[in-house]
Amino acid sequence: MAIWHTTFPLDEANRRGQDCANGHLGIELIEAGEDYLKGRMPVDQRTRQPAGVLHGGVSMVLAETLSSWAAAYVVDPEKFHCVGQEINANHVRAVKSGWVHGVARPLHLGRTSHVWDVRIQDESERLICVSRVTMAVLSTPNRY
Predict the structure, then answer these.
(1) pTM tops 0.90
(2) Quick check: is 12 catalytic?
(3) Residues 64, 78, 86, 125: which is the catalytic one?
């Protein structure tokens, strides 16, 4: 059974991300499955640290981007919105070039919080980073 409140709008989400951190770092959402959201990000001059490998903080940006978008479409957007509450990451392998792919899957979808597991792999499917993101689910104020 799909976790999405409505069909996940990949094109709209990518369009909305073009002029912010997502676009500046080359993050693209590429697939919304029944219970996951997948994205990719280049490892290039925008995303590497001075030592020439993917910056760990940028891996966390990918993890939070995937979790935030996923959480936003699990809830009813007329009633709720989600904000990042906590993130942690373990960086397990360096990568110098190519693309990394992240997959966010829910560990917990509660009434007031979500916990997302994000696995980031290189093009050879080697684990680069594992992250856990907690999202707070907040009531959207009445706009009237």
Answers:
(1) yes
(2) no
(3) 64
